[in-house]
Amino acid sequence: MNAPPPDLASPPSPAPIWRFATAGAIGGLASGMFGVGGGIVMVPLLIWLGRLDQRRAAATSLAAIIPTALVGAAGYGFNGRLEIGPAAVIAAGAMAGAWAGARLLRTIKLATLNWVFVGLIAATAVAMAFFQPQRGPAPAMGAAAWAGLAALGLAMGLAAGLFGIGGGIIAVPALMAIFGFSDLAARGTSLLVMVPSAVAGSITNHQGGLVAWRPAMATGLTAAAAALAGGGLAVLIAPRAGNLLFAGLLAVTAVQLSIRAARAARAARAGS
Question: Helices marked H in 106-167 — which ranges?
Fold first, then answer.
């Protein structure tokens, strides 16, 4: 049997459990408010507060997203802000896209693609800052709309497989701007979509020995409770203000991805 990589042979960092609970509370609040998984917030916090390496932080965050997304989606569903049919179609496309993205990751050069994706997120942030969401009834769904939802799921999965990000960052703006969902329905549906892909990814990560389960449980349970509070805040905040806050989250995401892309480019130059 091959020995595990050095960073996997050593045990996870023995940081106090309250640090993981803190990361979960912050990430869960963002998840519930904006319909995102919370990983874009939790991964840096798990590295900083939890003293986990990048790979363990990403895997632990993904495991914590399972209860967070379930509870957050349930909260939106309780308020009638959840579209189960569209969520199922998007999720099916996302599973296929994640598989394709993981395959492409082995063969294509990501240097240019990374910056294209950063530009897309930044442009979406600007668009969301000026977009006025509505809180009306669910839109009528024709054949073209259902096909578009499947394509949205495929795009989400590809982004997840290629960049390790996706979910609500892509789904929420598209559901509002393209498909006419209300801001709350877009967020609730986005959270539900994340559950199957988070489960599948966590199974793979567990088999690879990447998930720190005790920190994941502390992070996930705290994040789930915070997601309910975040969903309640989303209902109370005016749609315009909520969209401006979401645009700010997208801008933070673009900055984080820019830093990651720049580091990858430097590493590639150093290795050449």
Answer: 111-130, 143-163
